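User: what does the whole thing look like in 3D?
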Amino acid sequence: MLQNINWSPLWISLKTGFAATVIAFFAGVFCARKIMKLRPAAKGIWDGILTMPLVLPPTVAGFFLLMLFSLRRPFGKFLMDSFDIRIVQSWAGCVIAASVIAFPLMYRNARAAFEQVDVNLIYAGRTLGMSESRIFWKVIMPAARPGIASGTVLAFARAIGEYGATSMLAGNILGKTRTVSVAIAAETAAGNYDKAGFWVAIILVLSFVIVAVINIISGKGMQTRRWI
Amino acid sequence: MAVSIDIEKDFKGFSLRVKFDSTCATMGILGASGSGKSITLRCIAGIETPDRGRIVVNGRTIFDSDQKINLKPQQRRIGYLFQNYALFPTMTVKENIACGYRGKDKQERDKKVQDYITRYHLEGLEDHLPSQLSGGQQQRVALARMMTGEPEMILLDEPFSALDGYLKDVLQRDMQTFLKDYPGDMLLVTHSRDEAFRFCDQLILLKDGKTLTIGNTRQIFEDPGLIEAARLTGCKNYSAAERIDSHHIFAADWGISLRTVQQVPTDISWVGIRGHWLKPREEDGENCMPVKVTEYIETTFEHQCLVQNPRLKDGGSLWWMRPKNSFEEDPGKNLPTYLYLPPEHLMLLKK
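Assistant: Here's the predicted 3D structure for the full assembly of 579 residues, as structure tokens:
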């Protein structure tokens, strides 16, 4: 059976996962950093907005993304006409959908990690004459590393498994936008349980590796306590 | 070398109104916790911004709300030693110290870092992380990191409060040695009168966000002038006082009249004396109070007695510190019949 398998969904999933993780990483860290500078009231509101994709069904995110990027809508049409960029039914659509869904995990983990960093470290850096960006990248990010790292891995896991928003925005084109999750749904719907089961097994292995990586990263620099 | 501060900042339920001018190289702010002393220090460093006012350090205006001047902490060149040292946890000792260097020249930086590592006795610890160091070593790294930038002035926020007993004594001695080589001004914030006395030539007393008084340290301990100031400097004995004539007062809570060396001001309301200055006497005489011990507290090297005047019904107590001769000594024995309040040590106080 393995000879007949088209491996493209796995590569598309991994490619999408990496691209979306990079986007979610920088967007999440950037937003978490901005949020840390806000007053409590504004912080609450923005935090709610940025967490939305995590609590809403992915299809709702897919709906909004489609509203934005559809070729029949102003923005999507503008992208197509002016830059020849097509988001719907394309790999870029896969990446955007996965990024939006993975973003809150990155953002929330980064923010939680920043909240744990002693503010005096920032003040110390300032009185020592260090620039704000140097303080952020050399002092705060390393101090927040375990939280940032586990956020990154979780975002990657979420991006790889994304189905709802991806199928709405990017569709199901073999070799182009069909990811493993989309393949599982499509094969099951078509009654091809063997093929669906094969992809399920692939996802199980992948997930196990991801969880192991999280534990290894967050175990470092963090004391593991045992409650007796 | 001079610092001039006049700032206001309002918080919920607390307002800071601090104003002082100082021309002294070693200054201290003494105040209870919550008196606003740390906020004042943070305002000078630029970590916190006052609502209104002016801060001038060595003729350089670093903050002025009227002229809209508010230099960034990076531009102020004012070192700040944090209470918990705030060492960068993921950097080694060497990297931490290098962060304090303000120039661009890498060779010069490495030379300087090495110099400060030697100066602050950190040899062999260069590649350790802060979490692998003792409290004393951490403090030396924080000092070295601050000094590498050659700040014009340094601010020390309760530098010894996180340390205990023996280590504190050693570190205080070390700190005095390090500070001797430092050419700039120092401002230390503390709630400990002993630290204030030991490190500062000039003291600013703060209470509830307001400047109470400012002056030469020894003078403030000798003659605090205000009852609140006397309290902050650790004086425990007070009595309501009435003026009799230019050198005599009546201390109502102790039930005795007292001769003073200082001329008695007309608006005197309190008199105070430090428990260490009280002397035992066997015979009645000038400035003597009869003794009835109502409470006894044993400390490591002192007998501390609360003493009342037996002739008064609701008299106030005198807290009398008496050095021990040995640990076996019976504190109940050899109690004097009178306590003498030396006129030169009486503090005439106002509200």
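In plain terms: The interface with chain A takes residues 42, 45-47, 72-74, 76-80, 82, 84, 86-91, 99-100, 102, 145-146, 149 of chain B (CB under 8 Å). Chain B has a mean pLDDT of 90.
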